[in-house]
Amino acid sequence: MTLRARITGTGMLVPERVVTNDDLAELMDTSDEWIRQRSGIATRHYVADGQVPSELAVGATRNALDAAGLDPADLDCIILATLSAEADFPGTSFFLQQRLGVEGLPCFDLRAQCSGFVYALSVANAFVRSGVYRRILVAGCEVHSTGLDFSTEGRDVTVLFGDGSGAVVVEANDEPGDTSEILEVRLHAQGEYADKLWVEAPSSAIPRRITPELMAEKRHFPRMQGRFVFKHAVTRMPEVLLETLGAASVKLEDVDHFLFHQANLRINEYVAQQLEIPPEKCPNNIDRFGNCSAASIPMLLDENVRSGRIERGQLVAMTTFGSGFSWTSAILRW
Ligand code: COA
Q1: 114 catalytic, yes or no?
Q2: In which band, very low, low, confident or very high, does the pLDDT at 28 lie, cut at 50, 70 and 90?
Q3: Are 224 and 200 in contact (CB under 8 A)?
Q4: Ligand 1 contacts CB of residue 30 (under 6 A)
């Protein structure tokens, strides 16, 4: 019998500091009106000086473990998705493992940018289904704010991103009467467009990896071709969502909640419109948190599980698009 995998607990943590659009307008030529109108973002959270990614991740993890009724020692493995690692190496997951006090527990980072959480969820699902591990922590964690260009030159990217962390516990479900399950996951990538949204350095392709010249050229800050990204996102997201629903033999109209990656409210509205999905089935939190990349989906999931909006037995569809390019979808029976 193939084992099934289900999510048994969710958690999130964002740093306390709230940064408004007006706060950003004091640093660069932008406005609250421009940011709200183009992206739907009103505020985002930033870490305090010295607050590191694994600090956020451990908070989200403890909340997810509490919800699942587990201790860190009950876990078999940790997978952490991030594009803003605490160190060049080792991965942020190792700092998280140390904070959890679970010496010996395997852990690794997964790099698939804004699609990272669903990529990690698919790995956890495969581990459980194949009987390798029974209880896996899947976390998404980003500290963007320490790596953004706060001059007018960087405004197109900087206003969109925030810091935060989300986590879930994935467990084997071998109770015959329990329908809760990760039904299908589909992953895609197109490296051809890597430089349409990327941070080039520090880079092992560059002698000494980071130099004053490179920094003067601002090649250590994210660069994005916004319109190009937008165009691909609104094509790939419906495509992969329909592919995954088909694989799961689930009808679009039977899905109760569509959790879209929180990159831009306009992208999500456009996708929902194209597929004729009613807005009340598409919760968003980008207005408060901005784009938290790999943390966005688990944060949105946690909010909607804790508020009681997502109930056991319902169908949940997650869909992402991000740098790489990468795009994914996962269908779950909650
Ligand atoms: N504040 C004020 N003006 C800004 C600005 C900001 N933060 N950022 C860019 N602008 C200006 C541009 O310089 C440009 O000025 P110009 O017309 O004088 O040249 C103008 O606004 C329009 O820029 P454009 O890039 O064409 O705007 P847009 O309508 O495409 O919106 C994005 C920009 C970034 C909001 C949009 O392209 C987008 O959301 N793209 C997808 C981004 C994304 O999802 N990234 C993450 C994927 S995981």
Answers
A1: yes
A2: very high
A3: no
A4: yes
pTM above 0.90, yes or no: yes
pLDDT tens digits for range 287-325:
999 999 999 999 999 999 999 999 999 999 999 999 999
Domain 181-333 CATH superfamily = Thiolase/Chalcone synthase (3.40.47.10)
State the Cα–Cα distance between residues 289 and 162, nearest whole angstrom: 6
Average pLDDT over residues 12-22: 98
Find the distance separating the first CA and the last CA of the chain, reported in whole Å.
21
| Residues 299, 12 contacting (CB under 8 angstroms) | yes
Nearest Cα residue to 68 out of 119, 116, 7:
7
Q: Determine the average pLDDT of the residues in 255-279.
A: 98
> 34 CB less than 6 Å from ligand 1?
yes
Comma-separated ranges of CATH 3.40.47.10 domains in the chain:
4-173, 181-333
The token duo for 169 is 């516990």
Four-point Cα dihedral 237, 136, 61, 280, nearest 10? 30
Hey, which of 156, 197, 326 would you mutate to test ligand 1's pocket, going by the most ligand atoms within 8 Å of its Cβ? 156
